[in-house]
Amino acid sequence: MENLKIKVGITHGDINGIGYEVIIKTLSDIRINELCIPIVYGSSKVAAYHRKALNIENFSLNVVGSATEANPKRSNIINCTNDEIKVELSKSTEEAGKAAFQALEKATSDLKSGLIDVLITAPINKKNIQSDNFNFPGHTEYLEQKFGNGKKGLMLMVNEVMKVAVLTGHLPLKEVASRITEENIIEKLKDLKLSLTRDFGVVKPRIAVLGLNPHAGDDGILGTEEQEIIIPAIRKANQMGILCFGAYPADGFFGSGNFRNFDAVLAMYHDQGLAPFKAIAMDNGVNYTAGLPIIRTSPAHGTAYDKAGAGKSSEDSFRNALYLACDIFNNRKAFAEISSNPLKKQEVEVIGATE
């Protein structure tokens, strides 16, 4: 059974933040090793530094040279940095940005080669990681370039009570309105419907679409994007078989709890969707990059420099990111099996029912 375990690649993120704390706390639970084979892409030296700083005993990472050597009964680590790397807790340093990129490059290379099955990324500092090799606003855009083949990913925030996707992600607010087009909305609704069906097993998902302007434009008084672009896109999407509704004013939609009546929400821009999501689910929410052939999740929080080394950070969000990645991997396998030969699947079920 060991070879059937999911190989989970984990990038260590910014070494001066809380990445290693939430990783170590999560992997300290030995039940994780029954579910999957964790492989951290980072530095055994940095991991040991954080373990000592956090006063965590009876835990160690098994150092391996490649994912193929991973011990199926242990949590493993692949060294991606040099031995002279320096940890400076709570500080943003060029060295930390370089180390974060080196781990990400190695992990995505292994993901592309099929050496790992899913990827969980610990938080990075989006400024110090910038270089000639990494000039992206964040993980999502980097993964689009690596795996999208020209297709955009979909940022999807997930917890037990809501799923929130964003039409425009890491983009200055002044540029948002120009990206609100019928084509973009319909494309994201297609991706969201597919993800809900394939990745989450939702049959005939119901999607709420938010407006762009306050009060969803108030019939054109506060803006015309709803009447001219968003609502026509919703109508066209419905004609294509996507059950979507709106445009809803964002404040009342979340404030009234109306989000509970839908399987997912499509927000028009980053903070419109993520601010209410994180207000509700900061400690346990997960960021999932939908719409790509690979599976990548991350915790909903950032590097949290102010908490680095204090041992007070909750690992719940990171643990949920690991669980979700494994769930999506299994859901995709089941979806592919059913989709490849649905008639054969139904025949097997009927025969089994008559025995």
Please describe what this structure looks like.
- The chain has 355 residues and is of the alpha/beta class.
- The chain folds into 2 domains: 1-150 and 293-306, Isopropylmalate Dehydrogenase (3-Layer(aba) Sandwich), CATH 3.40.718.10; 152-291, Isopropylmalate Dehydrogenase.
- It contains 12 helices and 12 strands.
- Helix 8 (225-239) links the parallel strand 8 (206-210) and strand 9.
- The longest helix is centred in the C-terminal third of the chain and has 25 residues, at 316-340.
- The chain is globular and about 60 Å long.
- Residues 347-355 have low confidence and may be disordered.
List keywords for this structure.
355 residues, alpha/beta, Isopropylmalate Dehydrogenase, 2 domains, 12-stranded mixed sheet, 12 helices, 12 strands, 41% helix, 17% strand, globular, disordered C terminus
Task: Give a topology summary.
Blueprint (H helix, E strand, L loop, with lengths): L5 E6 L7 H9 L4 H4 E7 L1 H10 L8 E3 L11 E4 L14 H20 L4 E4 L17 H9 L6 E5 L4 E6 L7 H4 L2 H17 L7 E5 L14 H15 L3 E6 L1 H6 L8 E6 H12 L4 E5 L5 E4 L16 H25 L1 H13 L1
Parallel strand pairs: 1-2, 1-5, 2-4, 3-4, 5-12, 7-10, 8-9, 8-10
Antiparallel strand pairs: 6-7, 6-11, 11-12
Helix pairs in contact: 7-8
